[in-house]
Write a structure and sequence with these properties.
The structure holds 2 protein chains of 2 kinds. By secondary structure, chain A is of the alpha+beta class. Chain A has 6 helices and 18 strands. Chain A has a 16-stranded antiparallel beta barrel. In chain A, helix 1 runs antiparallel to helix 2. The longest helix of chain A is centred in the N-terminal third of the chain and has 34 residues. Chain B is of the alpha+beta class. Chain B contains 5 helices and 5 strands. A 5-stranded antiparallel β-sheet of chain B has the order 1-2-3-4-5. In chain B, a hairpin with a 4-residue loop joins strand 4 and strand 5. Chain B is globular. Classes of the chains: A alpha+beta, B alpha+beta. At the A-B interface, helix 2, helix 3, strand 5, strand 7 and strand 9 of A face helix 1, strand 1, strand 3, strand 5 and helix 4 of B.
Chain lengths: 457, 173
């Protein structure tokens, strides 16, 4: 009834307005548009008033009832009311106006088959994440992590801030970030929750070549397009080659992992650029590439507390990566290749002669993985998987005078076969067996059997 | 890399940052107009939902419209919200008179992570689905790598609305 009255009113208005602006077609059109908009707003209000009693009885969003539907839901959302419309109870937990908590954790049991005495059970990581919406376009994201259960002067654990950045949306499809951010490279670095990967441990390539949970501080831009492109670009702190310890195995385990700074009093003379381009235009497909490039010498020879004889001030890092992932029905296939180079290390390595770990000139790794959701019931599923990896953290070293050069490391090859059992999509129990091409006790390489527990909320 | 020449970049980024927009892709009215031909009427429907029977959380109360041309019902229109990773995604679903999905639109998305659910290619997977289909992620709906939680929760939301149609609305005169 009301609709008809309103429609008649509009018609009358239009009839009255039309002759007066006959000469100016565009002006008339815009007036009609304005009237249409008014009528639409009135309609929405009327509809909302009619709905109000119903919504009130449910106790949901009663405050929103007096507003037009579109604004009503916006108000609703900002207030982070009890989560409407999700059957998984806890993808995010409101703790106050605009603030949500989330987290994940991982417990691993490793048993080397040749050295059962070295079997170990570890609370690898417990993470609490939070985000806070200051307003519709500005947010804070943070992630706090404890590794190996206890962090103290006497213990091996670590307590760390894994991410902490402000994000500001400039338009629906792009925005900027500033702070400590995960490097958008590879398939795992940004999405490293244990429910997101197969096997008890993260794959070796994305630990040894791309450091595990690699983050740097700086500013970054991100965005996506309607055709499925996703882009990222950032200007961030560089690793610090001055940190390289030739006496330690760390540089052999992960060259970049041993010199990244994680924004802990980070040397910031040199900065790096990161970039990524992904294409997600076909559902189930992710194909993309990324790079991280910059100087990493940090002018160590000129630092107040640096090494005046440091010969690699101009050293540069270039890390490139390409990946593809295809998920369709019960199948999940992924492949990734990454390669890094560090320049100007000849003189530095000359000074490291006789030490076990010189700086590599190149390092690389790649893997291919297939997983199949074999069984599914209620919210549980069983997913066997197989992964093959090859990687080399010292594929070549800068040339040295005859007889002093460092031979390349052998390429490690690892097969991992296992099973992820998802009790529900957010809780996973894992089992796998890993077969290594060669053993290296110092780096924990050796055939082993693993069990794991992981969760995410 | 020398930082000096990058300073202007940072300054201009700061200036641009002042012009902020809320991340609303479509208004409800725009979504309604996109889903149904001009001249359609959207009549709000008050429903009492037995959330337990539908496997929905208690208090779940999507907005529902019966879409009419003259006296004939030509479809149904819903507005609802689900959690993405930690914040709400507001979306609209349109069904034809037989309960088949004709369109799924993301109205508002607040997080930057997982926003790829608004890609047309992904949303189009739902077109033609009915309450008889599985409408489950990694079964008849493909995932977007890196946006798993948003994909899963939005898929669950659509499935719930299809069940609401099948069990409650389809029986309405």
């Amino acid at each position: 009834m009301l609709h008809r009255i309103l429609a008649l009113a509009v018609a009358a208005c239009c009839a009255g307005v039309a002759p007066a602006v006959h000469a100016d077609d565009t002006a008339r059109k815009s007036e009609v548009e304005a009237l249409r908009a008014e009528v639409a707003a009135l309609k929405a209000e009327v509809e909302q008033m009619r709905l109000a009693p119903v919504r009130d009885t449910t106790g949901a969003a009663s405050a929103a009832a007096a507003q037009p539907p579109a604004t009503a839901t916006a108000a609703n959302a900002v207030a982070s009311a009890p989560n409407p419309g999700t059957t998984s109870p806890n993808p995010g937990n409101a703790v106050g106006e605009g603030t949500t908590l989330w987290g994940y954790g991982q417990l691993d049991y490793n048993r080397p088959t040749a050295r059962p005495a070295d079997a170990q059970f570890d609370l690898s990581r417990a993470v609490i994440g939070f985000n806070h919406a200051f307003d519709e376009s500005t947010r804070l994201y943070g992630e706090l992590e404890w590794e190996h259960a206890i962090a103290s002067a006497e213990d091996a654990g670590e307590s760390e801030v894994e991410q902490l950045y402000i994000e500001h949306t400039l338009a629906p499809s792009y925005g900027v970030r500033a702070g400590l951010m995960l490097v958008p490279i590879g398939l795992l670095n940004e999405h490293h929750e244990p429910t997101q990967f197969y096997g008890v441990e993260r794959n070796f390539v994305e630990q040894a070549i791309i450091p595990s949970t690699w983050r740097e501080g700086g500013i970054a831009g991100y965005g996506n397009t309607d055709s499925g492109w996703q882009w990222d670009i950032g200007l961030v702190t560089s690793p610090n080659l001055g940190k390289w310890d030739p006496t330690s195995d760390e540089g052999r385990a992960s060259p970049l992992g041993s010199i990244h700074q994680e924004l802990q009093l980070a040397k910031a003379h040199d900065v790096s650029l990161w970039g990524r381009l992904n294409w997600l235009g076909v559902p189930g497909l992710n194909v993309g590439a990324a790079f991280f490039a910059g100087k990493i010498g940090q002018d160590t020879s000129r630092q107040f507390d640096g090494d005046a004889n440091f010969p690699a001030d101009n050293s540069r890092l270039l890390l490139g990566e390409a990946h593809v992932r295809w998920q369709s029905g019960p199948w999940d296939f992924a492949a990734l290749y990454t390669r890094g180079t560090i320049s100007d290390t000849q003189d530095l390595n000359l000074g490291f002669l006789g030490q076990p770990t010189p700086v590599p000139k190149s390092f690389w790794g790649g893997y291919a993985q297939g997983a199949w959701r074999a069984l599914e019931w209620n919210r549980s599923s069983l997913v066997p998987f197989l992964r093959y990896e090859e990687f080399n953290t010292g594929a070549s070293y800068a040339a040295q005078p005859q007889g002093l050069g460092t031979p390349a490391l052998p390429t490690q090859r690892v097969w991992t076969a296992g099973l992820n059992y998802y009790l529900n999509p957010n809780v996973v129990f894992k089992i796998d067996y890993q077969n290594f091409r060669y053993d290296d006790v110092l780096l924990n390489y050796g055939n082993r059997f693993d069990l794991g527990i992981g969760y995410q909320f | 890399m020398q930082v000096r020449w990058l300073l202007p970049l940072g300054v201009s980024a700061t200036v641009v940052a002042q012009a902020a927009y809320a991340v609303q892709y479509l208004t409800l009215e725009q979504a309604q107009q996109a889903a149904f031909a001009q001249g359609s009427r959207f009549v709000p429907v008050a429903t009492t939902i037995d959330t337990a029977a539908l496997g929905a959380p208690s208090g779940w109360m999507p907005l529902v419209w019966r879409v009419q041309r003259d006296a004939e019902t030509i479809g149904w229109f819903f507005e609802d919200a689900v959690i993405g990773k930690s914040e709400l995604i507001t979306y609209a679903l349109a069904l034809d008179a037989s309960g088949k999905v004709t369109s799924l639109e993301v109205l508002e998305y607040r997080e930057s992570h997982g926003g790829e659910v608004r890609l047309a290619g992904w949303r189009n997977q739902f077109t033609g689905k009915t309450a008889a289909d599985a409408v489950a992620l990694d079964r008849d709906i493909r995932n977007i790598s890196g946006a798993t939680l948003s994909c899963r929760h939005l898929t669950e939301g659509v499935r719930r609305l299809l069940q609401l149609y099948a069990h409650v609305l389809a029986a309405k005169p």
